[in-house]
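Milestone 3.1: sequence recovery, worked example.
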């Protein structure tokens, strides 16, 4: 996920430069607190909107664990082991589903 696109989708594109300046990307976004956003100078209403959207992201795209989804089977339809597929990102899952 591109944070700039995400901010634009929320109508909060004005914070894209701040997020880039402070190196806030998709990896660290879930760790942000209200205090973090306040330290960036983001007003209360927008902080609340951002935190709500961050929570929604966490419930929309949970990381799949071994034994679930495309990660559970290899190209020949055999079950993968945790050694070969310990976890899977949602984007990887979609790619594997399309390309087998």
């Amino acid at each position: 996920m591109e944070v700039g696109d995400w901010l634009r989708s929320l109508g909060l594109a004005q914070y894209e430069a701040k997020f880039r300046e402070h190196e806030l990307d998709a990896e660290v976004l879930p760790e942000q607190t209200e205090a973090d956003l306040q330290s960036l100078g983001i007003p209360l209403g927008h902080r609340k909107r951002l935190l709500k959207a961050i929570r929604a992201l966490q419930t929309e795209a949970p990381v799949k664990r071994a034994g679930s989804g495309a990660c559970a089977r290899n190209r020949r339809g055999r079950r993968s082991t945790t050694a070969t597929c310990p976890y899977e990102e949602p984007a990887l899952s979609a790619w594997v589903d399309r390309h087998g």
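Residues 64-99 form one domain. Helices lie at 3-9, 16-21, 34-39, 44-60, 90-99.
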